[in-house]
């Protein structure tokens, strides 16, 4: 992390977990544990928990995010939620292009770009996910693939809009598998992402961008990962569902 240049952000991605009662219990347990954080703290929750999360985090340092957003403002898109619907609720962040959305629901680099543009135009702060499959890494094309994903995700995004975008590097082979990229592997790709952003915009824009690591960060490895210059936080999956574990990662970011 380099907090003199950019904000460190720890964001929990709850995925399809927690009913409203369970969400309330988790948030109430989490609030006092992260109250003194000097990094950004975000919880990205299922649509059914957004109202609960907004109500319970009001007046705290915890920001609320959604896990997906559609790129159209309205229309015949059954089951989808627009960016304006989220901002009207007071939601601040949204995860876009998570590998599970790409793998199971047909998300593409093109739709990631459309969703990212819709989100920033509505005033949301997208957490845009990029990352390689295990076969991509084994074939030595991680750098090319991730750079391409970043370039396509940011197509037609202005430098001013870029200020509200976070990129999360999530090696797909390290999500929910218990495997984690080494700190050096994670730092190398996060550095590549920053170089790619600099090539599209400039060094100033790249230096100001928050780049998270999103592959099974946990209390045991958080300090080492966050000790790397180009890793500015984490997009946390399983560990975000346990208040003490999430708080421990936030503490690592606070101390780093």
TrEMBL record:
Its EC number is 5.3.1.1. Pathway: Carbohydrate degradation; glycolysis; D-glyceraldehyde 3-phosphate from glycerone phosphate: step 1/1; Carbohydrate biosynthesis; gluconeogenesis. InterPro entries: Aldolase_TIM (IPR013785), TIM_sf (IPR035990), TrioseP_Isoase_bac/euk (IPR022896), Triosephosphate_isomerase (IPR000652), Triosephosphate_isomerase_AS (IPR020861). The gene is tpiA. This is Triosephosphate isomerase. NCBIfam families: tim. The keyword Cytoplasm applies. It is found in: Cytoplasm.
């Amino acid at each position: 992390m380099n907090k003199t240049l950019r904000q460190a952000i720890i964001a929990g991605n709850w995925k399809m977990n927690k009913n409203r009662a369970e969400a309330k219990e988790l948030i109430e347990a989490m609030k006092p544990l992260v109250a003194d954080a000097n990094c950004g703290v975000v919880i990205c929750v299922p649509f059914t928990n957004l109202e609960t999360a907004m109500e319970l985090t009001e007046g705290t340092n915890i920001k609320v995010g959604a896990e997906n957003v559609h790129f159209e403002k309205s229309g015949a898109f059954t089951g989808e939620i627009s960016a304006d619907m989220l901002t009207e609720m007071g939601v601040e962040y949204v995860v876009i292009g998570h590998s599970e959305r790409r793998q199971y629901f047909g998300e593409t680099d093109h739709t990631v770009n459309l969703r990212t543009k819709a989100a920033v135009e509505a005033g949301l702060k997208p957490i845009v996910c990029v990352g390689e499959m295990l076969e991509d890494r084994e074939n030595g094309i991680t750098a090319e693939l991730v750079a391409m994903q970043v370039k396509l995700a940011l197509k037609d995004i202005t430098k001013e809009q870029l200020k509200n975008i976070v990129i999360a590097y999530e090696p797909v082979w390290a999500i929910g598998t218990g495997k984690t990229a080494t700190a050096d592997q994670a730092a190398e790709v996060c550095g590549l992402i920053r170089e790619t952003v600099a090539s599209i915009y400039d060094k100033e824009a790249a230096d100001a961008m928050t780049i998270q690591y999103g592959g099974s960060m946990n209390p045991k490895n958080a300090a080492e990962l966050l000790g790397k210059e180009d890793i500015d936080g984490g997009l946390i999956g399983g560990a975000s569902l346990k208040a003490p574990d999430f708080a421990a990662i936030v503490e690592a970011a606070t101390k780093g």
